[in-house]
Sequence to fold (544 residues):
Amino acid sequence: MNASHPYPDIWRRFSPRQAIVRTLWMLGVVFIAVWSLGNLDITWIYFLDAHIQAADLLTRMFPPEWGHTGRIIAPMMETIHIATLGTVVTFVIAIPLAFLSARNTTPNWITWFIGRFILVSSRSINTIVWALIFVAIFGPGAMAGIWAIAFRSIGFMGKLIAEAIEEVDEGTVEAIEATGASRLKVLLVGVMPQVLPVIFGTTMYRWDINIRESTVLGFVGAGGIGIELYSSINLFRWPEVSVMVFAILLVVILSEFVSATARQKIT
Amino acid sequence: MTPPAASDATRGAASARTTWSRPPIFFTTPAARYAFWFLIAAYLFWSSSTLNIDWVRTAQGLPRAGDMLARMVPPDFSRSGLLIRGVVESVQMAFAASFIGMILAIPLGLAAASNLAPRPVYLAARSLIVLSRTFHEVFIAIFFVKIVGFGPLAGLLTLIVASVSFISKMIAEDIENMNMGQIEAIRATGASFPKLLLYAVQPQVLPRYLGVCIYRLDANIRHSTVVGIVGAGGIGATLSASFKRYDYDFSLAILLTIIALVFIGEIFSTWLRSRLR
Fold:
């Protein structure tokens, strides 16, 4: 450093203090990761021949037994129905719940708290865990799957719709209130049209996720293609498994495409 | 949303009538709207008639739910050793998988960015991401259980695959949206490709990359609690076993612990991401 230019000769992005803090953060993250990995009860010897096992699995899965296609159409349809009906049930329950959980439309803080509580607990429990519960209630089958899908989706959709309601343009709402409209009318005419695109958008988005989720519901007995898949895997019928893998790939990608197109049209 | 021309037209019509009706948003003709609702009704009828639902068994559902709830309360925390071991294993799987995932995602994310990677590399990376994102975590877990056997290793590999595909997709999108001016500026200095990544790409992408990783940690904690259902380690196996043995008070204890864990994870991730900004 000399008087003619008061800058350091070598450019550094961070001050020494910043650099130390960043290094400490990085070390902390590495430490936690190493500690976690070290404490897991893993027999690393199994990991050594994993690539051989994987190759073995692939050779068993190939060639796919295409004759099995006819038998998986019905379970595949059931999977799609479970996802769709589950989304319909969610649609019906989530909208009133969203109005209950949005700060600007909820009647008082107790209802707000109840709404938020339902949304949080719905989201905290995974669809498959919900499926375990509903299989115990309704017995194995599509009914348990539909309710499992619905109970997980309520929290997701309710939260997003409630956020949209809270961001609604207050001017419109005030204008409707000024006409002397009832509370219900204010919600229907002032708030609803503003959040309708969000409602339909999140419904389509969640439907797409639900298709993916409903493919595995069968593992716990809640209907759909998962039941067939799990039994084929347990019976080591790998050529059948690969047909189902292709079918799931096809359906999921197709549903993603449909959902994306619909959302593009809505917004 | 409504084009101005349409609202003008309705205003003209409204002045003739005494009552105003809201102009339609999605379906401009009543016929389209009725057709839409008719199709929905037809679908509902068709799908619920083809599903093989045992209605007798379903009707028993409500009393059964009441019975189950009665047996769930109060939750039984007496086997806390088993519970804690499962939860700690889940959390360790989530931490380790997030860390390994966030490192492996960097090369894949770079390869999947159309403005940096050559076309064939881009296509290969994108199809890999699409392929692994298509399948549900539990679905991938089954295959890993078949390959490496029961236990946390299968769960760890599952969560790594899910994390890599998620984080690399986000990185790729971020790189594609970044400011190309900085790239050109660094390129103009004659910098090599690694230098370009370090000085032009990394500063622009890093904050959001870290945010995505923290979000993924949160998601991994959620998923680590369920991969055990198919034998891939963590608390899921204990939960599934307790349901099979009608041990509902223990199930509720596990469920409450999972909810608490997910809740803490969410708060932690929100706090960390707010610090990042």
Remarks:
- Residues 1-15 of chain B have pLDDT under 50 and may be disordered.
- Chain B touches chain A through 64 residues (CB under 8 Å).
- The two ends of chain B are 33 Å apart (CA to CA).
